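User: I'm writing a short report section on ligand binding and want a predicted complex to refer to. Could you take this sequence and FE2/S2 (inorganic) cluster and write out the structure as tokens? A short remark afterwards would be nice.
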Amino acid sequence: MFKIIHAQFIAPGIKRFILEAPRIARKQRPGQFVILRVNQTGERIPLTIERSDPEKGTVNLVVQSMGKTTHLLNSLETGDSILDVVGPLGKPSEIAKFGTVVVMGGGVGTAMAYPTAAALKRAGNRVITILGGRNKDLVLLEREMREVSDTVFVTTDDGSYADKGLVTDKLRQLIENGTRIDLVLAVGPIPMMRAVAEMTRKERIRTIVSLNPIMIDGTGMCGGCRVLIEGKSEFACVDGPEFDAHRVDFAVLVQRNSMYRDAEKRSMDDYKRELEAKKAAVKTEAETACVLEGK
Amino acid sequence: MATTPTKSKNPIPNRERIKMPRQHMPEQPPLVRAQQFTEVNLGYSAELAQQEALRCIECAKPTCTETCPVGVKVKEFVQLIVEGNFLGAAAKIREDNVLPAITGRVCPQEDHCEGGCLLKKKGESLGIGYLERFVADYEQQHFDTKNIVKAPPTGKKVAIVGSGPSGLTAAGDLVQKGHQVHVFEALHEVGGVLTYGIPEFRLPKKIIREQVDYMRAMGVEFETDVVVGRTVTIDELLEEEGYDAVFIGTGAGLPQFMGIPGEHLNGVYSANEFLTRINLMHAYEFPKYDEPMVDFRGKNVAVIGGGNTALDAIRSALRLGAGKAYVLYRRSEAEMPARIEEVKHAKQEGIEFQVLAAPIEFLSDGKGWLSGARCQKMELGEPDASGRRRPVPIAGSEYEVPLSVAVIAIGTSANPIVQSTTPGLNTNKRGYIQADETTQRTSRKGVFAGGDIVTGSATVILAMGAGRRAAKGIDEYLKSGQW
Ligand SMILES: Cc1cc2nc3c(=O)[nH]c(=O)nc-3n(C[C@H](O)[C@H](O)[C@H](O)COP(=O)(O)OP(=O)(O)OC[C@H]3O[C@@H](n4cnc5c(N)ncnc54)[C@H](O)[C@@H]3O)c2cc1C
Ligand code: FES
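Assistant: Sure. The structure tokens for the complex follow:
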């Protein structure tokens, strides 16, 4: 059992958890993730560690409600527990002095890019950060990112905050302005990472992406997380999750991530129905109580 | 301790015993069991067990014990069954084998005890596995953990990495010697392959839970969700957490793929993933459990391979509703490494065996899903390094099989996580840990290893044998302090 020390929504549908996990906190490096299982009947899902505090023995996770498991997770509060959390898994990000690094975070991807950005800054790089979200609410960790970046650009798809447009528009501007870029780190939705890869390929800028295939064990045992890297299968949980963006077959990633779409939808629908039934039950109970009390 | 040979309580003369037929194992009817995950074999009753035990001809030099990798005293425990002393029989087995309910179900007896049984020359071997299973189950029903006697503590601490049969055996033996034992397991359940690999219909999870509860009662501590090498390293266990010795029993868990086109298609699984979804994650109970599985109902499914893993996978697919279920194996049935009983059961359940055939390409439906396999026929050539005849492709023999799901069960290799994070731990060319054959010592002081991570994929009983030798080796090291 892993206790939730603190849980708070930081944006609509996005919650930050501070978990008591001393072993993981002690070993975590930027870029690594955990796999968790909420309860006995739960599935195992991977989540990147936003940061950890080895002294306090805690790790932070940022979770966006997507399917049943993430909704269930985001219904948990301070004081609740998560049944299983294992990690830290995956290879840590490569941290070195590259020169100028552009860190791009899309939505919750920013939480995953954050620890690496901070480490790159500490390693003496010039860090230019581009944050993006569909709207103002979904631009995450701007304050934290400003603390570890030399420059921060923000874009929103709908223009509700900062510059209207996509993170890739900003990247194009930087390239067109002749900014010297030694490395790009892009973490976010697959279409965003794919677009970044296409743009930097032409410019021959080394680009790293963090992939999120379906996983079970996270130790190289099942092969379910395999991704196609230049025609060769690699296991994202042990060989990744970070890969050279120019070698990744994004089409296969999208295809494999859709494998259980029907089942996932069914789980989510059942879950919603369950919640509504519970709500209705609570309501009837309250109504009955009112009637009984003669109100 | 010298034992005076007791006179046999078996009234039947040997020449009559030889003529007695082997007692059949009661089992669920094939068409019923192919629809559900409950255990196929139902187990002997006390009467059947005693009837079968009477067949033992009590050889002066029992070859059954010689051919058992852990030397179970078969003749003696079988005589105790004849006498009706079932708990005594269980205790006799436990002297050499701490997981009898498991080996009684999954050991390849035909290669070991039953293969060595002299009755086989005259007809059918003694049902030693069935008898072992019977006494183990009887003991489980009649044993009280309150009767466990704990050894006086030695003050030494041992860490066991991995909770498969090698780790469990080492843990059980070490705790009996009074050492404090802590088992670390990467997954959320203990048991190794017994839990995530072998399905319910062959080895009910309840059996493993009971064995583990028994060990807990003896004082073994279990900590799940710890990937040694990532969550904590071997060096940290020895230097910071105060362990005096470590046993590595991490198995051979890395799935091998075939490296043929189309392996990334949706619907192509490694046997490990497929079986883990079913056994560890209960995908067959979706949507009660959240882990999803593709819909098998009415679909064509094939497994590639001929071992126990392959048969476990395809029989699971059948139970999930597969319309047609095939085994594609590149050699002939004689070379199949699976237990004979599993092949028999699979055939009864309606699984089709296409031997001397192997896929060379997985075909796509154009939308990213598997639609079939292009296969090639084989013939057997000269024996290879394993002593089995090598499959040779027949030119121009290609054919296609329509398939929605393919499960690849062609073997596994060593998981490098522990080796790559433990400096000075020697491995062989294939990445398996090198360990001494009698003490299971590795190249690192205080570190022992055994089971599949040393030998490559083998069997439950061989892993247990290694766990037992390691426990002995560790105990000697802890007592002498000598390396
Ligand atoms: C599907 C299947 C069916 C089989 N059927 C039979 C059969 O019928 N009869 C038979 O005799 N044999 C059978 N076998 C083979 C047998 O199961 C294995 O030989 C045996 O389990 C090996 O035991 P082990 O203790 O070496 O490792 P395993 O059982 O593989 O256990 C290793 C454990 O270590 C854990 N681990 C790995 N790395 C780490 C780490 N870094 N930190 C912490 N924990 C870790 C794993 O999660 C696992 O739980 C079968 C195998 C499979 C896959
Ligand atoms: S998640 Fe199973 S191998 Fe990567």
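A remark for your report: The two ends of chain B are 30 Å apart (CA to CA). The first strand of chain B starts at residue 157 and ends at 161.
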